[in-house]
């Protein structure tokens, strides 16, 4: 009985002790532990594969990350460029967008038309607004002065529709044309670019 107890104690010690170095375990016990997954030489099988709970949390985390990235991408794709339009009074509070104003009278007076973030190939369908002389009248071939409020791009008023012919260019940073030179009452189109053969302000 005593010998049996000693053997049992030795087996229990071998089964419960997990040395860091596999060579410290007798070969027979080491092989048993490798087969059972208790010891692999680096880490246990359970540790290397991860518990079911850890794997589930990781998958949920990845799914949330992918969903958030997809949502951000959709917002970026649908946001589009800044709005474009025409009207009156817009350029005064948005001076750093592509924004220019044409006026019915010289010296930036009378009714006006603001144009932002777009080119106008033909002024035929546009009218002045905002009160003052010329309010309600057509803009085409009816402008006396202009103002560029954009800090990045030039604004050019053209004699002909479609951005051609003689022109007046107003450079960035409040380029002004208190009385149009080449397009005085002969203004047909506007673009945010500097044209050739233009009078440059």
Question: Would you kindly provide a written description of the structure presented here, covering whatever features stand out?
Answer:
With 201 residues, this protein is α+β, with helices and mostly antiparallel strands. Helices cover 29% and strands 21% of the residues. The protein has 4 helices and 9 strands; from the N terminus they run ααααβββββββββ. The chain has helices at residues 2-16, 27-36, 45-49, 52-79, and strands spanning 85-87, 99-105, 109-116, 145-148, 155-160, 164-170, 176-177, 189-191, 198-200. The strands form 2 sheets. The protein has a 5-stranded antiparallel sheet with strand order 1-3-2-4-7, with no helix packed on it. A 4-stranded mixed sheet has the order 8-5-6-9, with no helix packed on it. The radius of gyration is 40 Å and the shape is elongated.
Whole-number radius of gyration? 40 Å
Number of E strands: 9
Widest sheet, order of strands: 1-3-2-4-7
**Tertiary shape:** elongated
Rounded to the nearest angstrom, the distance between the terminal CA atoms is 113 Å
- Poorly predicted runs are 7-19, 38-48, 69-81
Largest sheet: 5 strands, antiparallel
Strand and helix order: HHHHEEEEEEEEE
Task: Output the structural class.
Answer: alpha+beta
What is the average of the pLDDT values? 74
Percent strand = 15-25%
How helix-rich are the residues, as a percent range? 25-40%
Short description:
With about 200 residues, this protein is α+β, with helices and mostly antiparallel strands.
Fold topology:
Elements: H1 2-16, H2 27-36, H3 45-49, H4 52-79, E1 85-87, E2 99-105, E3 109-116, E4 145-148, E5 155-160, E6 164-170, E7 176-177, E8 189-191, E9 198-200
Parallel strand pairs: 6-9
Antiparallel strand pairs: 1-3, 2-3, 2-4, 4-7, 5-6, 5-8
